[in-house]
Specification:
Elements (H helix, E strand, L loop, with lengths): L1 E9 L4 E4 L1 H11 L3 E8 L4 E7 L3 H14 L16 H10 L3 E7 L2 E2 L5 E7 L6 E9 L1
Antiparallel strand pairs: 1-8, 2-7, 3-5, 3-8, 4-7, 5-6
Length: about 140
């Protein structure tokens, strides 16, 4: 069987939006007991990450590291059509990922104890992001 659900995720600008509950809901709605869930983000300036969900300092530290690694307004970048965070957002996406594969076990996404699924917005302005959750079981 195959089931897909499209999500619209509203971000608040650069940072993380937890979509774990929405992914779990899509897996439950699929009716699959065993299988594979793929989460796909349809954008080039935001990412999907599987990350620690208990301590928000982990996500804060990730953002601090990436701010040091890929600086907004870096004169190295030519592509700045949408502002100084434009190319840095694309670089951040390439260095991370835009899809995740999660096993389905006993009717739910088999995440680890401290794992959550997040959209990581790399632009400084809020955006509406499209995510497709597909389940094969």
């Amino acid at each position: 069987m195959y089931h897909a659900k499209e999500l619209t995720v509203s971000t608040r600008g650069r940072g993380f939006t937890d979509i774990t509950a929405e992914v779990q809901r899509a897996v439950t709605e699929s009716g699959a007991r065993q299988g594979l869930c793929t989460v796909f983000l349809h954008h080039t300036s935001a990412s999907l990450i599987l990350c620690e969900n208990a301590d928000p300092d982990v996500r804060r530290d990730l953002e601090s590291f990436f701010a040091r690694l890929v600086k907004d307004g870096d004169p190295l970048f030519v592509h700045d059509a949408e502002g100084p965070d434009d190319m840095p957002a694309h670089v951040r996406t390439v260095l991370t990922q835009n899809s995740l594969s999660i096993p389905v076990k006993d009717g739910s996404a088999a995440l680890g104890t401290w794992q959550g699924v997040y959209v990581w917005e790399h632009r400084t302005s809020p955006h509406r992001r499209r995510v497709t959750v597909s389940v094969v079981g």
